[in-house]
């Protein structure tokens, strides 16, 4: 399932389909498609889309529909979820949706699964119309979903059509040690969300690798880590472009709902000292600068963690500069 002998570290993209100031949701989705086409040409391995609800600044609530659009608009890049928040859905519905995607685009669909709702609890109840206990059923839901995607002889009375026999690759997403334990127990690839929750990264990867049990899906541990990237022609330009990302995270901390903001020359006066510390803590794994600077920053990170694949998110206001940021990232990784 995984190419673990590749000489060059695979690089992938996570897109939240953030709506920039002055942009409509339709324009944000069009930008998503254009970015997917661009990174496919650059040789990126995957293009994943998140799931968020009741968030007016993100257009990624109907994740499977966006994935279908990316698949229709590209030729070879793998497209998937980063992730589907399983507590919001029944495993059968997810199996039907991703089984349909795999049927239309064989070999190109990924199914990343998370246990968080991707929204507030009131919205979570509106989505699933049940209690918060669905999050605790996450391990059982993953196994149920796996079974729906297996050949018919492995299933019970209820089947996912299409979906049966598609065996869509499943990835466990997480930001804690509990998700690492689950991925290890099920023998599935593990994707850590270091782009916004870096605190338990090293501990989680150690647990995943030490507890990993080989499965029919994966013989050896496979680790992907998602980080923030702001690539530019110079370090100085990257520092300015990166202010949009800082304001994005400031939005999260304050609970405000502002669209992605244009960059500013300085963040002075835009946040308090505690807010600055919180943003820097969330975005600890941000690689920013020129190609040479990003390569220099990434080398010890990749060496220490021994990751199998790097995934990146880039909150840059200008679409052309965002595309260039991913170009610079790919060039930096390829020269390591």
TrEMBL record:
Protein name as it appears in the record: Luciferase family oxidoreductase group 1
Domain of life, source organism: Bacteria
InterPro entries: Bact_Lucif_Oxidored, CmoO-like, Luciferase-like_dom, Luciferase-like_sf
This protein's GO CC annotations: cytosol
GO MF assignments: oxidoreductase activity, acting on paired donors, with incorporation or reduction of molecular oxygen
PANTHER family: LUCIFERASE-LIKE MONOOXYGENASE
Gene3D superfamilies noted in UniProt: Luciferase-like domain (3.20.20.30)
NCBIfam families in alphabetical order: oxido_grp_1
Domain annotation Luciferase-like: ranges: 12-300
Family: To bacterial alkanal monooxygenase alpha and beta chains.
A UniProt-annotated Pfam family: Bac_luciferase
Organism for this UniProt entry: Planococcus koreensis
């Amino acid at each position: 399932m995984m190419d673990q002998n590749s000489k060059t570290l695979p690089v992938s993209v996570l897109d939240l389909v953030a709506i920039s100031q002055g942009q409509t949701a339709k324009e944000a989705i069009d930008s998503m498609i254009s970015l997917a086409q661009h990174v496919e040409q650059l040789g990126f391995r995957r293009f994943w889309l998140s799931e968020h609800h009741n968030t007016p600044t993100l257009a990624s609530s109907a994740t499977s529909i966006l994935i279908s659009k990316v698949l229709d608009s590209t030729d070879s890049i793998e497209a998937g979820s980063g992730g589907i928040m399983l507590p919001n859905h029944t495993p059968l519905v997810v199996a039907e949706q991703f089984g349909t995607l795999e049927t239309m685009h064989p070999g190109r669909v990924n199914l990343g699964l998370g246990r968080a709702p991707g929204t507030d609890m009131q919205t979570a109840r509106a989505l699933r119309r049940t209690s918060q206990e669905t999050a605790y059923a996450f391990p059982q839901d993953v196994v149920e979903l796996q079974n729906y995607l297996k050949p018919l002889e492995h299933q019970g009375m209820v089947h996912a059509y299409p979906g049966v026999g598609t065996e869509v690759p499943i990835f466990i997403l997480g930001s804690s040690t509990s998700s690492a334990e689950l991925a290890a127990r099920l023998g599935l690839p593990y994707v850590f969300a270091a782009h916004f929750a870096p605190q338990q990264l090293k501990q989680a990867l150690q647990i995943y690798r030490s507890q990993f049990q080989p499965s029919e899906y994966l013989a050896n541990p496979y680790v992907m880590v998602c980080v923030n990237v702001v690539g530019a022609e110079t370090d100085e330009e990257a520092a300015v472009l990166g202010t949009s990302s800082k304001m994005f995270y400031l939005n999260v901390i304050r609970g405000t709902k502002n669209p992605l903001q244009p960059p500013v020359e300085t963040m002075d006066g835009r946040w308090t000292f505690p807010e600055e510390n919180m943003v820097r803590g969330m975005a600890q794994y941000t690689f920013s600068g020129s190609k040479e600077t990003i390569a220099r920053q990434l080398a010890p990170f990749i060496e220490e963690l021994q990751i199998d694949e790097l995934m990146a998110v880039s909150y840059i206001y200008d679409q052309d500069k965002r595309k260039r940021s991913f170009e610079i990232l790919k060039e930096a990784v390829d020269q390591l």
